[in-house]
Amino acid sequence: MARDTVAYDRDVVADVLAKVHAEGRESLTAPEGRRVCEAYGIPTPGEGFATSADAAVQLAAEIGGEVVMKIVSPDILHKTEAGGVKVGVSGDDAVRAAYYEILANAAAYKDDAEIDGVQVQEMLSGGQEVIIGATTDPTFGKVIVFGLGGVLVEVLKDVTFRLAPVDHETAMSMLDGIKAAEILRGVRGAEPVDADALADVIERLSDLVTDFPQISEFDLNPVFARPDGASAADVRIVLSAKEPVEPVRYSRDEILATMNRMMRPKAVAVIGASAESGKIGNSVMKNLIDGGYAGEIYPINPKADEILGRTAYKNIGEVPGDVDVAVFAVPAKFVPQALREVGEKNVPAAVLIPSGFAETGNHELQEEIVAIARDTGVRLLGPNIYGYYYTPQNLCATFCTPYDVKGGVALTSQSGGIGMAILGFSRSTKMGVSAIVGLGNKSDLDEDDLLTYFGQDPDTNIVAMHLEDLKDGRAFVEAAREITRKKPVVVLKAGRTALGARAASSHTGALAGDDKVYDDILKQSGVVRAYSLGDMLEYARGIPVLPTPKGENVVIITGAGGSGVLLSDAVVENELSLMEIPPDLDAAFKAFIPPFGASGNPIDITGGEPPSTYEATIRLGLEDDRIHSLILGYWHTIVTPPMVFAELTARVVAEAKAKGIEKPVVASLAGDVEVEEASDYLYQHGVVAYPYTTEKPVAVLGAKYRWARSAGFL
Amino acid sequence: MARDTVAYDRDVVADVLAKVHAEGRESLTAPEGRRVCEAYGIPTPGEGFATSADAAVQLAAEIGGEVVMKIVSPDILHKTEAGGVKVGVSGDDAVRAAYYEILANAAAYKDDAEIDGVQVQEMLSGGQEVIIGATTDPTFGKVIVFGLGGVLVEVLKDVTFRLAPVDHETAMSMLDGIKAAEILRGVRGAEPVDADALADVIERLSDLVTDFPQISEFDLNPVFARPDGASAADVRIVLSAKEPVEPVRYSRDEILATMNRMMRPKAVAVIGASAESGKIGNSVMKNLIDGGYAGEIYPINPKADEILGRTAYKNIGEVPGDVDVAVFAVPAKFVPQALREVGEKNVPAAVLIPSGFAETGNHELQEEIVAIARDTGVRLLGPNIYGYYYTPQNLCATFCTPYDVKGGVALTSQSGGIGMAILGFSRSTKMGVSAIVGLGNKSDLDEDDLLTYFGQDPDTNIVAMHLEDLKDGRAFVEAAREITRKKPVVVLKAGRTALGARAASSHTGALAGDDKVYDDILKQSGVVRAYSLGDMLEYARGIPVLPTPKGENVVIITGAGGSGVLLSDAVVENELSLMEIPPDLDAAFKAFIPPFGASGNPIDITGGEPPSTYEATIRLGLEDDRIHSLILGYWHTIVTPPMVFAELTARVVAEAKAKGIEKPVVASLAGDVEVEEASDYLYQHGVVAYPYTTEKPVAVLGAKYRWARSAGFL
Questions:
Q1: Total structural domains in chain A?
Q2: What is the pTM of this model?
């Protein structure tokens, strides 16, 4: 934390909260909230508290100018709704009248409300109303909120979230993080608000809720942001009724010790291995053997002596050597006993394929196996999963079909169906994969364990995850921040709409957080978010194909002017920057294209050009240092057929690479069906290329840039 | 127009505008603007005009309460920026001080500004600030704007547009058309604003700019919208410097007379036909012959007697019979002379493949051929196009390869590259096409002519258009409104981002309008907008496959819970409604699925189920009247392999159809590569199905719904 917390008066806050707690209340009154704010240096307007009309009149006179008057009642949280707020009151008679009206309104709103009195406050105005708050997210814990305040926050929901605690830089980033950020910078000649003062309030609030985690909600709304400071006009503080449950956490070394043995095992046991075709225990055995796994495979089956040519054991205790991972293919009811035996054998990891646990409502059985695992020191993957693939070890510990195209992409899915889509897409596009892992019910091992492993795995260079919830958002963020500095992480968060979230809830029993919280915090942790299954798969496939860009200057070279326009649209949508071409470079491009071609950016080489024009302009685009990425728009003509374009592009890219020049190159191919083969060829040669779409190649480039920026390469 | 325009005082407005015009000004002063508003019954606050501090003090006293004071100067349009506005002024001294300060600020802002005086106005407050305005769009002409007012309109740009004139219903729809619409309905217990009063102001303004087209811009900003009325606090009126150019328009009968002969010709002439392979004039001849066109084909070539077995003519005048369309395959410079001859021969349509006109900067040549065409009564398609396909006539009048998969989809593109992508995608997906038409420079025939033709074409049941601009937005809207009641129209508007629009401008020389204007007005005309090339192509392919839904109740039936969550996300994003399943229907579904499957919606039948479970639940979904559309989520398992799922689904859908039950059914297939074949099979059997994506099938369903709603089926 950047802030010097020594100046905070923690005792005052502790006293206030203790009193509220002692009185069995969950929310603070306005004067209590004000004391808390003052103790942490959060500026509030001049004010006082009146229990009679005379006192209110006197207070208003002391404050001077116009005042705001507000009901003070532990029973009324929404004061405006209750008619308990009067603004711009001035003059003795008006103050007196307002006092009585507020009391009358409050009584009408809730006749048994306990009324403490009326707060009389300096009328703040002339600034921009913003909201600064903190909330306790079920996934991420303490989260800081910033946005436009007043009524607009509820209607426009133009707010941004960050994980608490926030430092000064993060606080400042929140001011830029809302859609209406421009309003804070001053529009129509208005002075900009005091950004440092706002960031200061954000940091103080962040420190406050970090120091006092029992504060579950904290709203400063509105805060008046002025050119010369900021004051919180209203404060609302709610305490949590129950203690938060601390999730179980393992150290990095503990995680890696288990994960290394699970992913690179010397010996695998299959609990419930079977010789009978069609059984899951048979499919797992077959896939391990057919997949080419070179370690020991121990089938465990009380009724067999041998399965698929391997000696079978009655139980895992009888296995002669060490076992690194036990893959379970027995019905749910047999899992607890077998898991105890696995624990006794000191197997570090159990992969639980069976369903019939929390996902079918059988929470007791899931809790039972989790307890056994904790007792015996076994980490669990699943239950309710298809298993996992790890191609560096030729390991297909799954009942699905084997997969053998090796590469650097590690994929995980919470759902089995999505896992199957990952497998099919990978096979269809020949995507090089290091791992495909099912997480299912996530009773124990989850995304942060996998990130910790993949982060240090030399065989993995990108991770793509489908998830519906996070059991421990903070652990995920910590792991993600670490890995995303080196390797991209793509996340498809399902259940991101209200209806989607409802379905997630019925599916996994997990409470999905508000999507905007996920969105902002995933970004904060360096994750590239995909908003659809198709995008997740294409990003996973395409990001590792592209080199990391060295700058923001993107140039479009296109044979089809029409593609150029659509590619430009896609550039803007993906938050990329079309380079302003300097005059000398413009002249250099012009030398290659017809006089009526459009130079500038897009560079429209026009449709009837021969291969040499594509080649010369692409080479120039690669060789000029000021250009950092290329987007190609190909137009199928007789003069330059699709495969000719593909081969020349691949060759020019390879020649540049031989000279040490590596830039992301993506391509959109418009033409007859031959462009499909040409796109495949280009993809295999390091150019992310698609037929019949201008948006997909640019979306992949945009995803690469999002990662490169968050990882500090740009 | 709903409004009784008799009450309007047109003479007052005409006098004010005449005076402004006579003085060589383009903008009205505030008092002039106020007179114009009053003449059309647009409510404005109490006010007066002061040319001295004393007069201002007297006026303020007469108005009473707080006043707003504003500079009046023909040279200062942005009064706030100039420091020319003081709000909440009350009391003689304050009014006097404000008067002098405003004059001083104005002089400092622009020292040569002519200052008329200061407007003293009743201070409006307590309402919501909105903007109501009119602007003259280069594409659509008079357009009405509504949005949140004040500073927010500039930052949030939360505005909505409609083509003027607007009726009461359209005016009311504008209030719901902004993101912050909720604020007008009253939030946090606030009273709703007077929607009728706001709509009334919108209509009056619409009438005003319709009656006086020389008004190019009209801002009422802010309008204070209160629970009991609305008043325009500030008015800004700008007149256009030049007369608008009225576009050339043809009647429906004239358009159809030409288009019918062009699309269903008895005889086609090819100007510049060639026997030499590789020449465009040779490709066109070959494609006409190889495509199977049964009418007469007349090659025109001064140097040949016969081309590809057809008698050639020196010029079109020598052709013995009538010619319905002349396809040009000669260099640009030869077009004028040949076009004159085509005109003399009374050929109604010329298809101009050649480039070298406006797109290369040769505007003169394009103007020349347009003039010749007008003179001789020939309508032009192009120039700078690939030609056109019309499959009902086996007509491939293009230099690209023939296409013969007949069907109801008509596609058009402004760009040749996009046309080639259309062709390739069509061939790859075996999309049944009626027409593919290149529009290129749109020197004459454009989208509205084609819409008029396709609207009445029995061989076309959906139109998909790629466009970068519209030459005549009003004609397009008129044609679109007519056709979209019967047939869906999908539009991909390129150049929709600022950068994209810049590229469009360099490509076609066309000024693309602001995208939000396009967005709102395309919606107003019943068009389904696609936001990417991929979406346009998938909508074109999928919409005609699906029957028109009879209601909004969408049900998801899924084998993969994970797909169910993502499909639910997609439902929300595509503005579809997941049906609330009534208890009896819930019980009926439950009877088919395992006890731990999730009923509700999505209906999660769980992953391990046999074909009979898919079959029973899909049949129930089709046969229950309360359900209007089905989204299927398939999960590849050994128990129900992909083709088994595809065949059973196709069979159940066909059985329902035989009973007269037709509902849209779309499917997402998660699994290994066999799901690709299964998806193709389903698509061919009327189920819009995709592998590895949950978003695409729902997007197509959403597009179908958007059309069905706008056409009044829902």
A1: 5
A2: 0.91
